[in-house]
Amino acid sequence: MKAYDIVIVGGGPAGLAAAISARESGIESVLILERDKELGGILNQCIHNGFGLHTFKEELTGPEYAGRFIQKVLDMEIEYKLNTMVADISKDRVITAISREEGLTRIKAGAIVLAMGCRERPRGALNIPGYRPAGIFSAGTAQRLVNMEGYMPGREVVILGSGDIGLIMARRMTLEGAKVKVVAELMPYSGGLKRNIVQCLDDFGIPLKLSHTVIDIDGKDRVKGVTIAQVGSDGKPVAGTEEYISCDTLLLSVGLIPENELSRGIGVQISPVTNGPVVNESLETSIDGVFACGNVLHVHDLVDYVSEEAHMAGKCAAAYVQAQKLGNTEEFQGGRAVSLKGENGVRYTVPVFVRPEHMEDTLTVRFRVGNVYKNASVCTYFGDTCISRRKKRVLAPGEMENIVLKKAEIEKYPDLETITIRIEQE
Amino acid sequence: MEKRELTCIGCPLGCAVTVVLENGEIKSVTGNTCKRGDDYARKEVTHPTRIVTSTVTVEGGSAPVVSVKTKEDIPKDKIFDCVRALRGVSVKAPVHMGDVILENAAGTGVDIIATKTVL
Amino acid sequence: MYDAVIIGAGVVGSAIARELSKYRLNACVVEKEEDVCCGTSKANSAIVHAGFDAESGTLKAKLNVEGNAMMEQLSKDLDFSFKRNGSMVICTDEAGFSVLETLKARGEKNGVPGLEILNREQLMALEPNLSDAVIGALYAPTGGIVCPFNLTIALAENAAVNGVEFKFGTEVESIGRTDSGYTVTTDQGTIYAKTVVNAAGVYADKFHNMVSKDKIHITARKGEYCLLDKNVGNYVSHTIFQLPSAMGKGVLVTPTVHGNLLVGPTAADIEDKEATNTTREGLDFLIEKAKESVKDLPIRQVITSFAGLRAHEDGDEFIIKEVEEAPGFFDAAGIESPGLTSAPAIGVMVAGMIAQKLGLEANPNFVGTRRGIPHLDAMKQEERAALIRQNPAYGNIICRCEMVSEGEIMDAIHRPLGARSLDGVKRRVRAGMGRCQAGFCSPRTMEILHREVPLSMLELTKSGPGSEIVVGRSKEMEGM
């Protein structure tokens, strides 16, 4: 059985950044396992621009953003295996991987970084009634067909869901000569970035119908049309608002789900809100030496935040391995834990607890809100004491938010049990 | 007098901004709630620009297509012209990130370059 | 001139074809769809019924019990998934017990072994997720679950290996009589045959009525289902039925042989025999109804829903016989539940009738066994590793939800009666059957079909002509 200090599962933006940071933290033996035929993950099919404003202070396309990290991995001579699927991970960190070249292999890891990303919610998850013809694609599948295979999935398109991938595909399909008839969004607001609504829909006169959903799919062999309807505040279609739209394609951009089947297999505790692992300030899961970052941990809106988070995971995994080499991982594990809670509009926080003695001088806590809030404040409470209020002009479910905790501040409260983040209206 | 309604993309607030023009000259910008909104609206009304991204066919490479973009912003009304200019364009592998795929796309003076390496 | 032409390559047509291939004859199967198992056989409860439902003395009762008894050996001979997980008919009030008693007595008369009525306490030990309302159940240890796709595919493939010809994409338009038999006119030309077998599912009445004045009438009875993620596949371990009604056996909750949870069906008589669409009302109904059987049904785990059409004949009985006024024309009509269970026995029965009619001799070269496509994810590590060493394509995982390799997909394509479409691959090896519902693997499976069949990407379909997946190359669309 081969052994590596750190094995990273997934060679997308999270895996790449984690690998680089682990190496920068002094770990020589790092291995990336990637199931696709190249590194870069989903960025390879995100050929649009808008990536990297935070990280590189310039606007890159997905492949360019990935390319910078891939180049670094190559320069650092970090080992990676492509076309390799991880089938199983055991509690004692033995990875079973499958590939054409090496067959079934077992790899022992000192620490593991989970960076498998996420998958798209399929039609079935929404239980949309109707036929099951060809022509129904998740937006990401369509994106792969168009951007990587060079094929067009349809001519006349309806898109359900105004998540960013759906918006991006509306523009992409339009530029390739397809007619995007409408984007329907179940919620009364879009989950996508404003910039994408303007530049992907408004620029091309594509209507966005909020509080609308697809209630029927017509066509036995290939999609012939869909029926959309307005939904009421109860989330149910409003009778009399049905509208039949002929089309040959339905794209679904209805949410992403962190891909945690492997994590569940190890026994990692999963948050029912994020569908990602429950982690501490070091991004370590409930299983010793198993870390998580990127979209497998929680779905991000900007890849820059993925890279940042993964950098942290790589660094912490390296610290774990170093402690392991000195035989004192127990020290790595101990310590007083302060739990982090989201309340009053804050749906979740990552991490969910913080151990002051293990944290760096500052810790970025990421979270999402459950609704659109205008002129509200993000308030941080240590116990019952409000220690910070940050006024925000707008908070939206589609945009990840964060607060920064200071170690020095937490240390002033030796009996602190809970830190709560709340949204409060002025 | 001409009125243009825009959505500001500066932040998630997405202010509905109204620009009033007279003979092509901006008379007023209203509805924005910050300076960025004003700047955005003025540029968007007078000379809106975009980066265009697309793909072109690769011959003999490890992938059937390679992703490309306009190296810089091009005028918004040239988007379709730029994409059409890529019709029928194919390149031979290897293609490297940054390689010029098409010079002076649709007369914009901007080159279209590869955004990925395909060997 | 064929000795026999079978109309329909569903489970019944395929079972008859396989049984016929035990004789020396020249037979073919015509199927309007692009593959076997495209109609009722692909969208049903996937249950091997014990046999207590049908009235004693009916063909339904007889063939159900016979088919059930055959299934285990057949699953070994032909290598498809079958599990005797046992079934329960639950009741929620005292009055229900008398119905259970009736079912039990009927079952015993039909020859169903091991029937037992259990009280709540006994049930909870077996099925802790039953709803609080359940007070008792009829327990049938011989009830089972099966993979309907691979049952049908295995039967057809084995028939093909033993010499039966399959003509796909061939729709029968009319049937005429000749001195020596029948002319079966299809959209692909005319077929001459001494005998005709009508195994056309919901369309069996159409073909019967072409040769007989004694009309039959088949109604398509729609059943909608929800399939749940493997995460909750062990929510129940037995097949949980509700008390039967005039429209069928009620909504059941069952594990599938592949480890998912299946909830359904509804029952609604419809006009359009192609209307395999699900409806809001139907899906809502069955989700509500299933709650009577199990508590806290994890409905958020639904990964897909689908609908199938039962071929319900007015007489409420299988019609399996030679049509009196049309000698040599054999009906296998009105095959609704327990049709899947009965199929192997129907095969024996119909083949026997034809053999007698034509005086057929046994086929000395008949091979009665078949190895299925290896399912690597279910194998022990060493076995799997050895197979990958033999054929590295088994190491290239294409469908990550179901862990299906390129090698398995290539097998699905290259076997006799191989897959030609995404659905064909899916039914054979489950690529695309998992929780992401083919989002990830479909472009990759398309590539393999494109390379191996071969088919151009533009010709590739989801489920046959008309269901093409892509419409053109990028940069070549009109309107660009």
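qc> Chain B has a mean pLDDT of 93.
qc> done
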